[in-house]
Amino acid sequence: MDTEYETPLFFHVMEYAGNADTDVIDMVSGNPDWEPPAALREGLHEYADGDPDQFQYPPSEGLLELREEIAERRGVATEQVVITNGAGEANYLAMARALERDRGIEIILTEPVYPYYPGKTTMLGGTTNFVETAADGQLDPDDVCAAASDETAAIVVNSPNNPTGAVYPRETIRELVAIAEENDAILVSDEVYDHFDLAGRFASALGFDSDHRIVTNAFSKSLAITGFRVGYAIFPPELVENAKSRHMLVNVAGSRPSQYAVLHALRETGPDYYEQNRDLLRERVETFTDALDAAGAEYTTPQGAFYVMARFDGYPGTLENVERLIDETGVAGMPGEAFGDSRGEWLRFALVSPRVEEAAERLARYFE
Amino acid sequence: MDTEYETPLFFHVMEYAGNADTDVIDMVSGNPDWEPPAALREGLHEYADGDPDQFQYPPSEGLLELREEIAERRGVATEQVVITNGAGEANYLAMARALERDRGIEIILTEPVYPYYPGKTTMLGGTTNFVETAADGQLDPDDVCAAASDETAAIVVNSPNNPTGAVYPRETIRELVAIAEENDAILVSDEVYDHFDLAGRFASALGFDSDHRIVTNAFSKSLAITGFRVGYAIFPPELVENAKSRHMLVNVAGSRPSQYAVLHALRETGPDYYEQNRDLLRERVETFTDALDAAGAEYTTPQGAFYVMARFDGYPGTLENVERLIDETGVAGMPGEAFGDSRGEWLRFALVSPRVEEAAERLARYFE
């Protein structure tokens, strides 16, 4: 095998936008533009003044106090929690663990898809099987049931969803866990946007106890620190040891200053912080979709996460068109084609800029 | 394949030592006990006060300024440098990249071996082929030449060496590069202890330009920050893109506070810092080996790195004996058997404690 896996386009588009001559409103990445909690900065200062031994390897699976804090919040045993280098590594470990069970090499993904998932699948020697979601991004468990078989190693879902903004109801999650069990597969539930459940409908896969589900998450979005790289995966007890081994063999351990600051922030940050950020996003959704209405664009109103997918007549969501939009309007989005064929006509805009209104106006003017 | 790779014992022994009732002198890990440079702490404070956008994803391959700083110091193009989550990820990427070339699945390792290498090899689907080193830890290139074949994907070496303390002369490195070229394999040269070249004999594989060598390194040891997780790999131009893809698909990016602090420390720290730490280690080597002489133990005097391997008559280097030594003398080392059969009689002691003299005295008393 010479490498066939593809690199997601995010960094490429961000770079293109960054190199543009014009003033560009960045709606490419999933980078929050709001403040991290004050306690996060405090935690980092505190760490910077610590003893030299604090600067050395944390336990491979992460700082014990951080794992305990997460375990208590999520209602699982500390031993099930592995701190990872962001949700990226958490998903990598979860998918690798599912494939290592040797119960098939197929990974079921939803379409449109977060592009890291197929990339990871191919890198790990698996094959992809896409299940299409509805226009509003909802996933029909019957479609997953029909797609699942002996060959299925894992079903990977993401709710609140990037890019569609769909939040799967409790019943969907329950059925997905059952389908994983029936097919001796693993449900990998990526819940990194759980704090951005804008409509109050989020259900975690942790609500359904099972040896067949792994839950992944991170503090990247919830604490506005995508660059810190602190995430976690919660494994069933019988799957956790080998996942810890892979984590150790790939990364040895995660970054201790980051873990320390996150622990401090978790302990000292109240629910107001998260609620404020949800309010901000709700406002931005309204502002942006109002302007899309004015521009006559089709779009989905997100129930969660950071993104609005929009479709402008005669302007398909290709990389070329995204670059043209950057050059001609100064608005940078992601090409829908990056998320699969089903959204090839669409563009994805991340609401992570204070200039969401201006961006929408620029788009409205351009597509008039 | 259900997982067969083994987890290195380091964390296990560290935990055992940490849980002991007695006062234990920790000579297990490769964790420096000396101060990081003052500029590292400054850098972290500076970062903690940065704008929110500084808290978001760095470029996947690492902060550009850090890659430039490394490229300039190492005399390579910036594009060849990938910042990794420590040397651990750097070696993982390098070995994966060698295997992906599809020129064989065998990885040649030296014996005694740093136990992460065989663990990574097995995890990546490769097979190991061990070449024994001499009593003083030196590697005979003729032995590597005899072991290498069409099946060889990579030759992984580590100089200054963990655990033997050997530093390979320039001629050895030159021949290893040539052997990699002749067999269409990749020399992976792990140079993480390059700043701890105690006898002034270190030669980097970067001194021999080749499309067949990857050099890995980290700031974990040189800046006394094993917990920060900042390392790097330098790839030949034609191998770097796929390595960046794997890095992105596994980790997305590395920790930005860590990278920022390391950049600041590199810029502001003069050669004195490194020289002081070498002096400290040279003193500890002398103190410890003097006491080993007094105890009648066999040992090798390290030319570099942090470790002394010692052999006490009738006390083989098993995990059981290491645990007994912790309980009965309060000195924690690593079992020689963790590094392969050839050093099954030996124990490894890391000189990362200010109590090296006391540790040696305890050992002398115990083995008298």
Short structural summary:
Chains A, B: Homodimer. Two copies of one chain form a homodimer. The first copy, chain A, has helices at residues 10-19, 38-48, 64-74, 86-100, 116-123, 141-147, 170-182, 237-251, 256-268, 271-294, 319-329, 356-367, and strands spanning 25-26, 81-84, 106-111, 127-132, 152-158, 186-190, 213-218, 231-234, 298-299, 307-311, 331-332, 334-335, 347-350.
Structural commentary:
Chain A is globular. In chain A, the strands form three sheets. A seven-stranded mixed β-sheet of chain A has the order 2-8-7-6-5-3-4, with helices on both faces. In chain A, β9 and β10 (307-311) form a beta hairpin. The first copy, chain A, has helices at 10-19, 38-48, 64-74, 86-100, 116-123, 141-147, 170-182, 237-251, 256-268, 271-294, 319-329, 356-367; strands at 25-26, 81-84, 106-111, 127-132, 152-158, 186-190, 213-218, 231-234, 298-299, 307-311, 331-332, 334-335, 347-350. With 368 residues, chain A is α/β, with parallel strands linked by helices. The mean pLDDT of chain A is 95. Chain A is built from twelve helices and 13 strands. The longest helix of chain A is centred in the C-terminal third of the chain and has 24 residues, at 271-294. The first copy, chain A, folds into two domains: 10-36 and 271-367, Aspartate Aminotransferase, domain 1; 57-268, 3-Layer(aba) Sandwich (Aspartate Aminotransferase, domain 2). The termini of chain A are far apart. In chain A, α2 (38-48) crosses α9 (256-268). In chain A, 41% of the residues lie in helices and 15% in strands. At the A-B interface, α2, α4, α5, α8 and α9 of A face α2, α4, α5, α8 and α9 of B. Chains A, B: This is Class I and II aminotransferase. Chains A, B: Keywords: Aminotransferase, Pyridoxal phosphate, Transferase. Chains A, B: Residues 22-362 form the Aminotransferase class I/classII large domain.
